[in-house]
Amino acid sequence: MFIKQFKYSTDNLGYLAYSRKEGIAIDAGSVDDILSFAEKNNIHIKYVTNTHSHYDHTPGNQALLEKTNAQFIDCRQIKSDQVIALDMEKIEAYYTPGHTDDSITFAADDFLVTGDTLFNGTIGNCFSGDLEAFFQSLKRLIALPGNTKIYAGHDYVIEAIKMAKIIEKDNPHFEAYIQKYNSGLIVSTLDDELSVNPYIRFNAQRMIHNLNKRNMPANTEFDRFKSIMEIY
Question: In order of start, what are the domains of the chain with their CATH numbers?
Fold first, then answer.
């Protein structure tokens, strides 16, 4: 399975995940660029869908559907672990509520399209109000292999690492992470994220130590995640 990233608006990121002949457009705000890439590479856009239904992720849906014969998959109706076939390959939809109640992560062989659930360097706001669900969603994602690539819904990397440095001043991995940053292709691995992303480092000894120094609840994984979210 292959993936192509398209930047649109100020910092939004959309995608075309594709096999040999068929593709699925995800958060496809950059309509003309996606259509041009698909035509050049002889890719039939079979599906159009979203990681969640926030307006900044859906602006390309209608135009893309009008210009192709793609089928729309409403993220609000996707069943957990639904499999979407492309040629002889597949992409799986994980239900990952937290940022919103309808948040979906799309998983292929070695990459995730995470929308606003897991960013490169940070995580999304918990607009659903359900921190427990958000925690469980993130737990599922970070349990995947460390070389899994993260393709998120926005480029917030510079701002995210500035905040991470405030949260965890003694973390030695920030410089290496920033050196990998390429504004033309926003991607990191789970190992990268687990080294610097404070919101998923609730099992890191440095983070636990920091929480203990603040006298914040830190007995369980969820206690620590909640404490990090409450402080920052």
Answer: 2-201 (3.60.15.10)
